[in-house]
Amino acid sequence: MEINLAGLLPEALLIDLPEIDAQHEEIFRRIEALKETCFGSGPVSFEEFESLLEYLKYHFSTEERVAGEAGAGFVDHARVHRENLQALGKAFREVRDGARDVHSFLRYAEYWFERHITEEDKPFADSVRKCRLRSSSRPESIASL
Question: 102-116 and 75-96 are packed helices; what angle lies between their axes, rounded to 10 degrees?
Fold first, then answer.
């Protein structure tokens, strides 16, 4: 792999799709930055939480684009993304409403994200690679049909 992700993304969570791995690194970086802010003496900025959720939407759209380019099925993974965004959005609203502690939200988000990569993104990446391999092994005349 030619991407250098010296940072927060553990090697065990790399899925070997460089664009997606770089975005996973960015999501972990954003979660860590929020933790530093929240555990420090500064006030909590809900804009930073909203920015994290917006970046997740962007990340999920990237995964959808990558799947489409490879010809990989994405219906089930898209459903998981919608459910995840709904759950995270609900948890964030609870933080804003004072019903959930920011630290609890961040622990939840970090655990959720690691689980998502392990249980959903790794199989997704495998299917993308298989589709790319099938596509590249077709004769040119068949692949262009």
Answer: 170
pLDDT band at 120 (very low <50, low <70, confident <90, very high): very high
How high is the mean pLDDT of the chain?
88
Domain count for the chain, please give it. 1
Q: Which residues span the domain enclosing 109?
A: 19-132
Q: Which residues of 93-123 are buried (b: 16+ CB within 10 A; e: fewer)?
A: eebeeeebebeebbeebbeebbebbeebbee
Helices 46-70 and 18-39: crossing angle in degrees, nearest 10, is 170
d(CA 93, CA 73): 32
* 93 close to 49: Cβ distance less than 8 angstroms: no
In a domain, 142, yes or no: no
Q: Residue 109's domain is classified under what CATH number?
A: 1.20.120.50
Tokens 């219906």 correspond to 75
More confident residue, 78 or 137: 78
> What pLDDT, on the 0 to 100 scale, is given for residue 39?
80
